[in-house]
Amino acid sequence: MSGHHTGSCLCGAVRFRIEGEFERFYLCHCSHCRKDTGSAHAANLFSATARVQWLTGGDKVTTYTLPATRHARCFCPICGSALPHAAGQFLAVPAGSLDSDVRRRPDAHIFVASRASWDKALEDIPAHETFPA
User: Fold this and answer.
1) What is the pLDDT of residue 121?
2) Burial of residue 40, with CB atoms counted within 10 A of its CB: 0-12 exposed, 13-18 middle, 19 or more buried
3) Mean pLDDT of successive 10-residue stretches along the chain, which has 133 residues
């Protein structure tokens, strides 16, 4: 995955561009990520070399760091959408925040010991193209 990617929040107040390559793509099942997303896991792309450029709304981006942990989350204060977070030597980008196509498949599920009890064999349940009738 080379070049650049663009992304935004749900309400469009924050728009960004990522320059560089992603080295890892993890689906994290830890309890912190499940709380962050309200879902089975977070889907984050990681890079030690890519950089984020805020195109609009960069001054609005809010960061929450869970006390006594390394867990942090950046988000739009208007709509709550997850946004990229630069932490130390790496950039974490929520895959769902990207507007451009992500061609890389996830590398691994991580922290599966914390997996939600209902998160098993999900590929076996019915799938619908839209909201079921």
Assistant:
1) 87
2) middle
3) 84 97 95 92 95 95 91 94 90 96 94 93 91 88
Maximum Cα–Cα distance for the chain, whole Å? 47
pTM, entire model: 0.90
The Cα–Cα gap between 42 and 44 comes to: 6
Counts of helices then strands in the chain (DSSP H, E): 1, 11
> Could you tell me which CATH class the domain 4-117 is placed in?
mainly beta
Q: What angle do CA 46, 48, 52 make, to 5 degrees?
A: 75
Q: Domain residue spans in the chain?
A: 4-117
Give the per-residue pLDDT at 111.
95
Cβ neighbourhood burial of 109 (10 Å; 0-12, 13-18, 19+) = middle
